[in-house]
Amino acid sequence: MSEYRDRRQNKQAKLSERSNQTFGLKATPELIARIDANRANSDLVFLARFITCFPEIEANHANPQQFAGFVFATLRGIGAFGLFDIAQDETEGQLEVLVQVIVEAGSLRWV
């Protein structure tokens, strides 16, 4: 039982250290401003490319730009959870669900 507790405490300490490093970025306004500026430029390009790569979304979805934003927000969220000890099959399952959502959004006429 003690070995399990030690492993769990070790894992929690590593998780805490990683999250402090990652979420501590918020305390650096200059860095956040640079990330924001970079995202402002790159988001427009990524959204346009998404629509180009999935013309079905543009043809069938009422809000293709918002849908593309949703997809990228989902991918960023999955990426953020990569900082933590998440099982690979869980991440793959989430990506599979995202694929299904994209396919459905391109197949249906959203009014």
Largest sheet: none
Helix content: over 70%
Number of domains: 1
What class would the helix/strand composition place it in? mainly alpha
* N-end to C-end Cα span: 57 Å
Low-pLDDT windows of residues: none
Radius of gyration: 19 Å
Q: Which geometry do the CA atoms define? A: flat
Count of distinct strands: 0
Explain the overall architecture.
The chain is an all-alpha fold and about 110 residues long. It has one domain (about 30-105). The protein is about 80% helix and about 0% strand. The protein contains five helices and no strands. The chain has helices spanning about 1-25, 30-55, 55-60, 65-80, 90-105. Helix 2 (about 30-55) crosses helix 4 (about 65-80). It starts with a helix and ends with a helix.
Brief overview:
The chain has five helices and no strands.
Index terms:
5 helices; 0% strand; flat; 82% helix; 111 residues; mainly alpha
What secondary-structure arrangement, pairings included, does this model have?
Elements (H helix, E strand, L loop, with lengths): L1 H22 L5 H25 L1 H6 L3 H18 L6 H20 L4
Helix pairs in contact: 2-4, 4-5
